[in-house]
Specification:
Blueprint (H helix, E strand, L loop, with lengths): L11 H17 L1 H11 L9 H14 L13 H16 L3 H20 L1 H4 L3 H5 L12 H19 L4 E3 L2 E4 L2 E4 L7 H18 L3 H32 L11 H26 L15 H26 L8 E2 L8 E2 L16 E9 L2 E10 L20 E8 L2 E9 L2 E9 L2 E3 L2 H10 L7 E9 L7 H7 L1 H6 L4 E2 L1
Antiparallel strand pairs: 1-2, 2-3, 4-13, 5-6, 6-7, 7-12, 8-9, 9-10, 10-11, 10-12
Length: about 475
């Protein structure tokens, strides 16, 4: 690796290609990039290292000449197009996680189009390291939280601190401390893995030594978090919960991490001594800009970009006309109220049309909720964790009323709720089936809706079978509501 100076050690052509790839894909999928920006700019949060990691990955790619042997290839155009289709599928069902996961893959396709498959394999470490800043790593939160709780329980018992431990809560004489998700230590683990991976990649050649370096920093990151949590418990106990660190301890953890990182670097130097002299290309390779190379990179980028751009054109053709709702004969007695669906305890954020109808039948007070979406995006979607047809639903199950499948759940002792989803002309019950229906109807961009019937009883509601018998015509008519 050429180390004669910063300017001379940078491959400006490679940097230009990487920057162009980031800018062009960012313009094609701005919402996905905006999500990452929000994720990476939350101070002291799990992924606050995102921009630092991206910058360092780019630095490694443009200064490491071991892979920079231009050998243009068009073989990665289909793979980039496939990445675009994956992004489109994730956009259709509004799973932002999958949309972000394709971005490092697209970058690798562009690099591979520039230097060929064999040389591109040498870029996998810095490119794959970008996944350490993507929310897929959240799957580790609960296991790490459980492990931190288990370790600190043993440390509390060993030191004789007066405390009662219940799940993640530590009850002490002066208050309760909770080992929350933030105490799992995922942010320190990811930062440590980034440090270990890049150090091993840049300074070690033997795979066994690289694995030792990464394993060491992983262990130190975990141990450092356990020490941090235990010290906070100890400080809270001794200060009777009055210390400022009990409530604001984000920076405290990074101090411990930095101290342990010093030990990592001392050990890593010993690994370098065992590894011998590090060899690299040593001189800047020839990187001729020719028509084939530019075409390979351009077509690869274009193969990905054409998918989201086509999707934007398709969505621009969605009708802006108001959504109309037509109730069938079985629901003719329902009258449109002037109230919002929120007043009935239903929440469907960002719906393009929502209506609340009411009626009385067989001693029951009925609320009919219709909420529809003509277009969807993150936070403005039918299937969303915050959306619900009523408050505090429990005991959810499915039933059939005159061959019409319905969800049913208890909202309170005096209310039951029946509901189904409509995607175009297709009826669904579960979140997964609704997402898949949206995916299969992608090109038609159908209106998606929820139809819910809240049944309020005079006192405690009878069994579901009795309610379905009393309201059979109303419940079976839910499927026949028309939304245009």
């Amino acid at each position: 690796m050429d180390t004669s100076g910063l300017v001379s050690s940078v491959s400006w052509k490679v940097l230009a290609v990487i920057v162009a790839a980031l800018v062009i894909t960012g313009l094609a999928v701005p919402d996905t990039y905006h999500t990452l920006h929000e994720l990476w700019t939350k101070n002291n949060e799990t992924y606050s290292h995102g921009y630092i990691l991206l910058g360092f990955a780019i630095y490694v790619l443009v200064t490491d000449f071991r892979w920079q042997q231009f050998s243009p290839s068009f073989a990665f155009v289909p793979l980039a197009f496939a990445a675009g289709l994956v992004w489109l599928a994730a956009e259709a069902v509004q799973i932002m996680l999958f949309q972000t996961l394709v971005l490092p893959g697209v970058l690798w396709c562009v690099l591979a189009a520039m230097v060929g498959f064999r040389n591109s394999l040498k870029t996998l470490v810095p490119v794959m390291a970008l996944y350490l800043a993507l929310p897929i790593m959240d799957i580790l939160v609960t296991p790490l939280q459980n492990l931190t709780t288990w370790v600190n329980t043993r440390m509390i018992l060993a030191t004789g601190i007066t405390a009662f431990i219940e799940n993640y809560d530590i009850h002490m004489p002066y208050g309760i401390m909770r080992i929350a998700h933030g105490c799992a230590g995922l942010n320190y683990l990811l930062a440590g893995m980034c440090l270990g991976v890049f150090y091993a990649y840049l300074n070690l050649q033997r795979v066994s030594l690289q694995l030792k370096a990464v394993a060491l920093i992983v262990v130190l990151s975990l141990v450092g978090n356990w020490i941090r949590v235990f010290l906070l418990i100890l400080i809270g106990y001794e200060s009777k919960m009055q210390s400022e660190l009990v409530h604001d301890h984000g920076f405290f953890g990074w101090i411990i991490f930095a101290v342990l990182a010093v030990f990592f670097f001392f050990y890593a130097k010993r690994l370098e001594a065992k590894d011998g002299e590090f060899t690299s290309v040593g001189s800047k390779p020839s990187l001729p800009l020719n028509g084939k190379m530019l075409a390979a990179v351009g077509l690869t980028l274009g193969a990905f970009v054409v998918v989201p751009l086509s999707w934007q054109v398709l969505r621009s053709g969605i009708s802006a006309d108001p959504i109309s709702v037509t109730l069938p004969q079985g629901l003719a007695k329902f009258k449109l109220t002037g109230r919002t669906i929120d007043s009935a305890g239903a929440v469907y954020q960002g719906s393009d049309e929502s209506q609340l109808y009411s009626a009385r039948q067989n001693g029951y007070r009925l609320n009919l909720i219709v909420a529809s979406y003509r277009s969807q995006k993150q936070g403005k979607e039918l299937i969303y964790y915050a959306n619900k047809p009523a408050v505090k639903l429990r005991q959810r199950t499915t039933i059939e009323v005159d061959n019409v499948p319905l969800n049913v759940a208890q909202s309170s002792s005096a209310q039951k709720v029946f509901w189904l989803y409509r995607v175009g002309q297709r009826t669904t019950l579960t979140d997964m089936d609704t997402k898949l229906a949206q995916l299969t109807g992608l090109l038609n961009t159908p209106v998606v809706s929820v139809f819910a019937l809240q049944v309020s009883c005079p006192r405690t509601c009878p069994a579901t079978a009795q309610i379905t018998k009393d309201l059979a015509s109303e419940l079976s008519a839910l499927e026949r509501i028309e939304v245009r």
